[in-house]
Amino acid sequence: MGAGTGAFSFAVAPRVREVVAVEADEELAERARRDAPPNVEVVVGDAERLELEPFSFDLCGCIRMLHHTRRPEAVVAELARMARPGGSILVADQLAPVDPLAAFELNRFERARDPSTTRLLSDGDLRALFDANGLVLRRERVVSEPRDLEGYLDLAGCEGFERERARGLAPTGYEAVVGWYVLAR
């Protein structure tokens, strides 16, 4: 889910029989289709309400997209619904700090940088969503990613007044904290 232009889907494609890459944005999906290997099907769909058969996949996942959806609880529920019993789910996303004020400030910066950002969740928020869907945490890894602020603003196409505003909201010495979670259904 949240396949974008297909980078993760294309990376796993040589190791599996079939990949279904779901992307909400038609333009990004079309770009992915142009470059997709033969065993990758790119479909346009809403990660909060997939039109795919339940229990269809050995592995389901979303990489760095939960903070772009209005209802991350619905996305996690869909991941759980789509995975076969005994299947695996991979969730990776940038994490919000536990401190509410620090989380507010980070979310304000991320929304200024990229208006498609809704809200970064904390590790505890994600674990609560996993628990609510009966998912069992098998492995986790939390990593810090140093960010070059100017390159990070470029990545979002943040320019002009919006860029200056985002630059002013950026946390000092900004590093992203990213959680990687492997879960079992």
How are the strands of the largest sheet arranged? 3-4-6-5
Average pLDDT figure: 96
Low-confidence stretches: none
What is the helix tally?
Answer: 7
CATH class: Alpha Beta
User: What kind of sheet is the major sheet?
Assistant: 4 strands, mixed
CATH superfamily: Vaccinia Virus protein VP39
What does the overall shape look like? globular
Helix-residue proportion: 25-40%
Oligomer: single chain
The count of strands amounts to 6
The CATH architecture can be named as: 3-Layer(aba) Sandwich
Kindly report the CATH topology: Rossmann fold
Order of helices and strands: HEHEEHEHHEHHE
Cα distance, first to last residue?
Answer: 17 Å
Tell me the structural class.
Answer: alpha/beta
Give the amount of beta strand, in percent.
25-35%
Folded structure, characterized:
The chain is α/β, with parallel strands linked by helices and 185 residues long. It has one domain (46-184): 3-Layer(aba) Sandwich (Rossmann fold). It has helices at residues 7-12, 26-35, 72-82, 100-113, 123-132, 149-155, 160-169, and strands at 19-23, 40-44, 57-63, 83-94, 136-146, 175-184. It has a four-stranded mixed beta sheet with strand order 3-4-6-5. Strands 1-2 form a two-stranded parallel sheet. α4 packs antiparallel against α7.
Summarize the structure.
The chain is an alpha/beta fold and 185 residues long. The protein has helices spanning 7-12, 26-35, 72-82, 100-113, 123-132, 149-155, 160-169; strands at 19-23, 40-44, 57-63, 83-94, 136-146, 175-184.
